[in-house]
Structures are given as C-alpha cells and as structure tokens.
Amino acid sequence: PNGKADLKEMLTKIKNAGITPGIHILHPHIGIDSKYVTPIPDHRLNLLKIFTLAKPLNKTDTTIFVEQYPGNSTMANGRRVLKIGTELISYKSYSTTRPYTFTGCVRGIDKTTINAQPEGFMCGLLDVSEFGAESVYIDQNSDLQDEVAEKIADIYSAGFEFVYFDGSE
To answer: Is the pTM of this model over 0.85?
Structure first.
C-alpha cells in the first residue's frame, strides 16, 4: 500500500533475519499483463517477422490477409500472436499459398484494443516468450530496455544487494 517505503521495510526485515535480498529478472522480457502490453501494446515490443496487410482489416475480421509469406511463423500454443496497431491477435493457422492469410483469428487478446487498419498497414509476429507465454521480448534496439532498466534501478535502490539477470543470452 505504501509502495517503495513498504519494500524498504520488508528488505530491512529480511536483512535483519540474516538473509541477503536479491532480485531475479528476465531483463529482455515484459510481462503480458504489464502496461507495455495492455491495453495498447507498446511499439517497442520485438517482432519476429513483418507483414503488410493485403486487404483492409475490419474490427470483426477473423481472417487476416498479408502480402508476405507467413511460412515458419510459430505454431506453438500461446505464441501465435500478431501485433497489429493497438491490438494483439491470436491465430489458429496460416496459408502458405496465395492469398496468404492468418485464419481462426481471435481479436483483442490480452485485453488489447481492437482496431481496424487499412490495406498496406505494417504489422508483425510478436516475439512471445517460449517460457510459458507469460511475457514478450522487447526490441533491444529501442529505448524500452533503458526505460525498464531505470525502473529496475529504482526498485533495486530500495535495499536489494544483488541482481541476477536471467535471459542475458
């Protein structure tokens, strides 16, 4: 309830008990339920492939037409996600012959904002974590990594004594 003050108090109790408090993070990841993903996905989330809409996308469409070959797009459960504007969309399958499509789409997953987009709009295959699909990768060539690092530094300054950067590969 008292934010950082409560965190400092808790860390003091941990230290007084003889335990060294640390923080363990997956620094290139952003949680699915974070403000960077929902209700409007941040433009600095990593995309594995880029597609161009071959037809306009209406708010109720469940098939998405794209110009580029979607072959080798992930088919793992929880990781079949397209980022199109303000929205994340899951797909059931895709075609590998023209017209290229993503089919069986569920709109506005993870409580994102459903939108319509014109033909020619650029979108992409979201880089969803392979570790349970609970997070997505950030684009490490953007300033999002710096922004998150500043937040981690602020939390760390409450009294943590070590940090483990998991996922540093």
So the answer is: yes
Q: What is the 3-state secondary structure (H, E, C) of the chain?
A: CCCHHHHHHHHHHHHHCCCCCEEEEECCEEECCCCCCCCCCCCCECEEEEEEECCCECCCCCCEEECCCCCCCCCCCCCCEEEECCEEEECCEECCCCCEEEECCECCHHHCCCCCECCCCEEEEECECCCCCCEEEECCCCCHHHHHHHHHHHHHCCCCCEEEEECCC
Average pLDDT of the residues in 52-63: 98
Contact 87, 10 (CB under 8 A): no
Give strand pairing partners of 83: 88, 124
Pairing of strands 122-126, 93-94: unpaired
Would you say residue 61 has pLDDT above 70?
yes
Could you give the 3-state DSSP secondary structure of residue 57? strand
Q: Which residues contact 16 (CB under 8 A, 6 or more apart)?
A: none
Amino acid letter, residue 129: S
On whether the CB atoms of residues 51 and 125 are closer than 8 A, the answer is yes
